[in-house]
Amino acid sequence: MDLVTPSIGLVFWTSLAFICLLILLRKFAWKPILGAIHEREQSIDEALNKAELAKQEMARLTSQNQDLMQQARAERDEILKEAKTLKDGILNEAKKQAQVEGAKLIEKAKIEIENQKKAALAEVKDQVSTLSLEIAERVLRTQLDDKTKQEALVANLLKDVELN
Amino acid sequence: MDCNRVFVSKVKRLTVVFTLLIAFLSIKIDTFAQVDSAVVPVDSAVADSAHVASGEPGAEAGLGKEKFEPTKVIMEHIADSHMWHLWGHTSLPLPVILYTPNGLEVFSSGNFHHGEHDYNGKYNNYRLEEDHIKVVAADGKVDEEASKAVLDFSITKNVAAMFVAILVILIVFISVASAYKKRVGKAPKGLQSFIEPIVLFVRDDIAKPNIGHKYAKFMPYLLTTFFFLLFNNLLGLVPIFPGSANVTGNIALTFVMALGTLIIVNINGNKYYWKHIFLPDVPFWLWPLMVVVEVVGIISKPFALMVRLFANMTAGHIIVLSLISLIFIFETLAIAPVSVAFVIFMDVLELLVAFLQAFIFTLLTALFIGMAVEEHH
Q1: How many CA within 13 A on the CB side of residue B261?
Q2: CA separation for the pair B65, B60 (Å, rounded)
Q3: Which residues contact B329 (CB under 8 A, 6 or more apart)?
Q4: From the candidates B72, B223, B231, B308, which should be mutated to test the interface with A, based on the most A CB atoms within 10 A?
Q5: pLDDT digit string (tens) for B355-369?
Q6: Who's near B197: CB < 8 A, 6+ residues apart?
Q7: Is A58 an 8 Å CB contact of chain B?
Q8: What is the CA radius of gyration of chain A?
Q9: Nearest CA to A3 among B250, B360, B263?
Q10: β-strands B95-100, B103-108: how paired?
Q11: With the CA atoms of B209, B350, B56 and B144 taken in that order, what torsion angle do they form, in degrees rounded to the nearest 10?
Q12: In angstroms, what CA-CA distances link B110 with A18, B93, B107, B152?
């Protein structure tokens, strides 16, 4: 039948046209198109991989940061604690020393005061004795200028003695 | 649940459509019988418009009081032609190229005046008989012997339509390729983004799963085959110039395409492929049988490709033309809405078929290539 008999002309032209089309498209269309698609797919893959890596890096950095923070906090706490102990120690020692020093000073002062008191008393005694002697001398001189008075005195003294 | 409902409604719709189709077919047969028995002279105007609407160049028949012959109209449309019908009585003459024993002969098919006149060539006189060019002997009768010696390499309607398709393909793909060069590494845009999914479909769903890691070598052939068939199928659905030719529904074209598959498969067949054919894995006393079967298989696979594409595309054209012919068979405009509705339905179906056949052809080619290059470990 006519419908199912391939005509030579159409076979020839189809073959020719298809081969030309294949060659032309391969050179001018498929190579650039498939190449570009492949390239783009690779770049997308790469970008995705990079994003994944960046994400991991980010997570790593975050955890590292947290670690660092914790470490820093702990360190700070320790330093504070240390400082406090140190301060307490210093304070205590200072207090003790101050007390000791104070006691020492008080002691010294006491001794000094005692010494001064003693010295002052001795001096006072000295002066009093000197003054008494002087007074006694003068009194005696004035009293014993005349005879009557001397007698009166002796009488007086004697009276006292009698009373005793 | 929701899907199920949709499915049920689709089945119902399909049932209705097919019932109607069967009903119309039975009516059509009745009308045939009536027309045949009564020999009612068909109104010339109707017959004339029949030829105009069905897009047939041989419109001379419309002038007479001839009755409408759907088979003839449809077959003329399905077959190749030396003229490209444009509209009404206007046709585009195409170049006739004849290879005669004496030398090449080139002239315009317009010289035949739709087959009314003979053309006196350099070496012979030629006559257009049922769209075949025949040599006319001196006595005015067709010389069959001499006609056989003349090979017809004319640019027929199918060849011209194929060239149009190729031109469209080249324009589309070279512009897309240039878009890829211009927009390196960027997302596709415009025509590029329409073509790219199809190219990726051919690569990822046809080539890669069937051929395996060696797919890259066959990509140009598969892509060219796919788009060549797709564009020709789609252009064949366009009812006006420059479509309307039944290019992929022509056995010559499908023969060439299947031959291409045959060649590319067997050239790339590795030792496992040939071992499978000539030393199959069966008891030795079965070899005579199996080798014959396998050798037949080499031919039968592309043969199936050839017939499948040819039959599918031709069938689609025949159905659409039959539905249009209904109007002229009934000789009433009342049937037109029904016809047109069915034609629209068929055209939409044909859009699917156009894609599907290109896909199946490419898929099977990839499958055969995959079988030929497969490594057995």
Answers
A1: 30
A2: 11
A3: B28, B31, B32, B35, B68, B70
A4: B223
A5: 999 999 999 999 999
A6: none
A7: no
A8: 65
A9: B250
A10: antiparallel
A11: 40
A12: 28, 5, 8, 16
Of all residues in chain B, the one with the smallest CA distance to A42 is B185
**Distance of CA A36 to CAs A29, A30, A51, B186, B191, Å?**
11, 10, 22, 10, 15
Say how many Å lie between the first and final Cα of chain B, rounded.
46
**Binary contact (B80, A10; C-beta < 8 A):** yes
Helices within B212-270 (DSSP H only): 219-237, 251-267
ipTM: 0.77
Provide DSSP, B37-79: HH-PPPPHHHHHHHHHHTT-S-THHHHTTPPP-HHHHHHHHHS
**A6 interfacial to chain B (CB closer than 8 Å):** yes
* Block mean pLDDT (10 aa), chain B, length 377: 55 65 55 41 40 42 63 85 83 88 86 82 83 82 83 90 93 91 82 91 92 90 94 89 84 94 92 87 86 91 94 91 88 87 92 94 94 83
Q: Between chains, do A9 and B156 touch, taking CB under 8 Å as contact?
A: yes
Contact list in B for residue A7 (CB cut-off 8 A) is 80, 152, 252
Q: Which of B231, B194, B188, B226 is nearest to B207 (CA)?
A: B226
Structure tokens at A135: 């007074």
The residue among B290, B288, B270 whose CA lies nearest residue B280 is B290
CA B19-B22-B26 angle, to 5 degrees, is: 140
Kindly report, residue by residue over B188-223, the tens digit of the pLDDT.
888 889 999 999 999 999 999 999 888 989 999 999
How far apart, in whole angstroms, are the C-alpha atoms of residue B218 and residue B268?
10
Of B357, B353, B362, residue with least CA distance to B205: B362
Binary contact (B260, A18; C-beta < 8 A): yes
Chain B: nearest CA to A58, how far in angstroms? 27
Q: What is the pLDDT of residue B79?
A: 85
Nearest Cα residue to B170 out of A15, A38, A12, A30: A30
Q: How far apart are CA B365 and CA B343, in angstroms?
A: 31
Asked if A78 reaches chain B (Cβ–Cβ under 8 Å), the answer is no
Backbone angles phi, psi at B92, to 5 degrees: -90, 120
**For residues B337 and A82, what is the distance between their CA atoms, to the nearest angstrom?**
100
Given CB atoms, is A119 within the 8 Å cutoff of chain B?
A: no
Q: At residue B59, what are phi and psi to the nearest 5 degrees?
A: -85, 0
DSSP state of B155: -
Give the C-alpha distances (Å, rounded to integers) separating A101 from A105, B112, B189, B237.
Answer: 6, 143, 94, 119
* Per-residue model confidence as pLDDT tens digits over B325-341: 888 888 888 888 889 99
